[in-house]
Amino acid sequence: VGAGFLYQGQLGGQERLVTLALIDAVLVLGLQIYVGNTGILSFGHIGFGAIAGYAFALMAISPAEKAKRVADAPFGLADVHLGPWTSMSLAVVVVLIVALVVGLGLARSGAESGAVSATVITLALLFVTHEVARNWPDLTGGDRAGLSFRIGGGLDSRAPLYLALLAAILSALLYARSRGGRLAMAAREDDLAARAMGVNPLVQQMVALLLSVSVVGIGAGLRVYERGSILPRDFFFNLTLVTLVMLIVGGRRSVSGALLGVAVITVGRELARRLGQDGFEFFGIGLDGAPLDWIFRENLKTVFLGVAMLGFMIWRPAGLLDDWDLDRWLHARLDRWRSRRQDLQDGTRSELPSEVEPDDTDVLVVKGVGVSFGGFQALDEVGLEVGRTEVVGVIGPNGAGKTTLLNVVTGLVGSDTGRVELGEVDLTDMPSHQIARRGLVRTFQNLRLFGALTVRENVEVSALVASSTR
């Protein structure tokens, strides 16, 4: 169908459509860096985009133009006039500062993959930025006037868009392959297992948030620069819905999927818009007459978005590409080719020596530990002493508190009384990821693998954590 429209030249404004699609791709890639790697659904990234967009406009608009709309702009902004690229860079700095504050709030809420509290915080940010933009006319121009600095808008060329898109793609790919990206994905798959291995999910989520917000800030600045104006409704729920649907349709765990989602939804919305116009004909066939007039209405593109999101969430929640990525596919084949070539050249492989030497001086000591759950006393004055090279069994019937003791020792459950020490270090109130980094690591009775990661990536997570503690 899309090919038919293109053949007829029916997709009006193709040049502008491509320009907006490039900008949307930057925004969606920024969203993918956070949502795809941490598993936390965010409604607030367009709110961050609004902050960056207004910061860019306030610095890029000339004082003469600002005198017409925001003559009383606070913080001396009425007299500020910088070049567009300098303004965009400073706008990214501004939004990073805001993201740092919001990220600390997410950390205090105990944000983890699938946590409702984190999603609610990001949704609140979206509404707060929208209401501030509407009701602070001295800063934003309000809901009617807005901020405008060029009639007609439009960048001189698409070169900045291509550069921004390339930078966004590289940022997303490099982060996914980086140490921080792997640890963030491990926490996304199993927060408890990641903490027990020594991963601090909050740090990884903060890094992902700051990187993603910087990419979104660039996309928002380009969007304002292209349009030549900004209004509160430009960065509110409509754009939030569009970018989320693009990410969900393509595949939120894949950079290639994010780009595919942008292409599919952009073309689909344009087709729906054309189909919803009165008097539209497809190869000479009218589509707005009976019996199809109840389908092809003016708001068909909004219906298309809703149907796309609902359909994919029900029948293919992982998106078109799931976690498949062209970059990972190419690297996997290149690694296999290198491995086969190395085997043919060497014939045999030498065993790697152990890099960890046991230290017999550290002794695990548990003194008088007590834990109660409501009125049930799970542990009462429990003591234990284990040397590093010893193998000790804790024996008891079901419900005796064996797992609770193990959880207390490794920091997964807090104790009401008593102390846990490793050598001269007090582990009693230490978080589980810090205890693991001290060398006290647990396994689980039921294997807790990171399901979306490959076998190699599961092993790499352990190696990455261990390398940072040596």
UniProtKB/TrEMBL annotation:
Kindly give the InterPro entries that the UniProt entry links to this protein.
ABC_transp_permease (IPR001851), ABC_transporter-like_ATP-bd (IPR003439), LivM-like (IPR043428), P-loop_NTPase (IPR027417)
List locations, semicolon-separated.
Answer: Cell membrane
Transmembrane stretches, by residue range?
A: 17-36, 43-62, 82-107, 114-133, 159-176, 207-225, 237-265
Instruction: Alphabetically list the UniProt keywords.
Output: Cell membrane, Membrane, Transmembrane, Transmembrane helix
Gene3D superfamilies in the record: P-loop containing nucleotide triphosphate hydrolases
SUPFAM superfamilies in the cross-refs: P-loop containing nucleoside triphosphate hydrolases
Location of the ABC transporter domain? 379-460
What GO CC terms are in its UniProt record? plasma membrane
Q: Does the keyword Transmembrane apply?
A: yes
Give the way it sits in the membrane. Answer: Multi-pass membrane protein
One GO MF term, please? Answer: branched-chain amino acid transmembrane transporter activity
| UniProt protein name | ABC transporter domain-containing protein
* Native source species: marine metagenome
